[in-house]
């Protein structure tokens, strides 16, 4: 982890000789995606410090890039001290340590012509798992969802260079980058908005389509809310499987957003379409959702066959971070 000092980090040691936090930041009372039961004291924070919220809990975004600025570094540690059960004692123990063991950097998978598509997807998912899920309360890589694809691919290369823990949105961008060479695999974002104990939570995975089967890549604290094998015959089967998984954690799915296929050319100056189809499971019946999902799947496949894609207005412009 690239920080301003040589003796900084949190509960598990980082791959750059510093450590990363094992705080309970993303740990809801149900144990489901991206939440915490810790109440954060927001008093005294200046405007702009609280970058995003999920489940009513703030998390920060490192918007200044690398090396990490001192203000971002100290803000992360202050959050860890508030959120971790051992608090400041844990932080001081790590930051004042004379020596911290250096962790190995995960090797980027190398695609070989002899590898099958499932084998390559498995290698990509294992690589992301080895980076580990980020529990520090600070997202290390800023993902602006309206940024052109070519710019997001540069962020993916930065993730590989820094080799730091990532969260679900970062995993989608990294997954796109690592599968660009698989022309037979179409990729598209699938986003979920859920509710638990009065709070709303957001999650996103990378949908996959290959040879008539659907699956996903992604990152989550829960194994059944991330990668799924290319074994689902229809898009609705895949989405309903996620809905069932959320139900096991007492989360009710409020919205499902399905994007369009992402081009395989990493140099295109076009943003990803994140929410071409928006479904509301609370208002729509199971059969209505199934019909809309199957129609969307057919439409996407036809657009690829015909080589037609919706035009994006102002696709060269970059805005502030969109809803995650």
Automatic annotation (TrEMBL):
InterPro entries: VASH1. GO terms for cellular component: cytoplasm. GO terms for biological process: regulation of angiogenesis. Residues 1-58 are annotated as: Disordered. Residues 20-31 have a biased composition (Low complexity). The active site is at 168, 203, 220. Residues 1-13, 35-45 have a biased composition (Polar residues). This is Vasohibin 2. The gene is VASH2.
């Amino acid at each position: 982890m690239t920080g301003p000092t040589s003796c900084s980090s949190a509960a598990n040691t980082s791959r750059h000789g510093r450590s990363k936090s094992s705080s309970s930041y993303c740990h809801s009372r149900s144990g489901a995606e991206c939440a915490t039961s810790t109440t954060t004291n927001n008093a005294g924070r200046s405007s702009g410090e609280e970058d995003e919220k999920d489940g009513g809990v703030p998390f920060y975004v490192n918007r200044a890039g690398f090396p990490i600025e001192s203000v971002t570094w100290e803000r992360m540690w202050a959050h860890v001290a508030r959120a971790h059960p051992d608090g400041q004692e844990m932080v001081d123990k790590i930051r004042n340590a004379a020596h911290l063991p250096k962790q190995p950097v995960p090797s980027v998978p190398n695609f070989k012509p002899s590898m099958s598509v499932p084998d390559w997807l498995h290698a990509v998912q294992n690589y992301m798992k080895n980076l580990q899920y980020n529990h520090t309360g600070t997202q290390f890589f800023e993902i602006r969802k309206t940024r052109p694809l070519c710019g997001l691919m540069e962020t993916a290369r930065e993730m590989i260079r820094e080799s730091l823990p990532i969260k679900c949105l970062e995993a989608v961008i990294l997954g796109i980058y690592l599968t660009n060479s698989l022309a037979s695999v179409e990729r598209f974002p699938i986003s979920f908005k859920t509710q638990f104990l009065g709070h709303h939570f957001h999650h996103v995975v990378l949908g996959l389509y290959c040879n008539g089967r659907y699956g996903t890549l992604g990152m989550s604290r829960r194994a059944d809310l991330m990668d799924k094998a290319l074994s689902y015959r229809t898009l609705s089967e895949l989405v309903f499987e996620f809905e069932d998984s959320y139900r096991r954690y007492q989360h009710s799915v409020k919205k499902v957003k399905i994007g369009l296929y992402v081009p395989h050319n990493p140099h295109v100056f076009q943003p990803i379409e994140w929410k071409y189809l928006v479904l509301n499971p609370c208002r729509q019946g199971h059969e209505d959702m199934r019909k809309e999902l199957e129609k969307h799947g057919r439409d996407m496949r036809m657009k690829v066959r015909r080589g037609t894609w919706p035009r994006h207005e102002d696709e060269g412009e970059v805005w502030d971070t969109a809803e995650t």
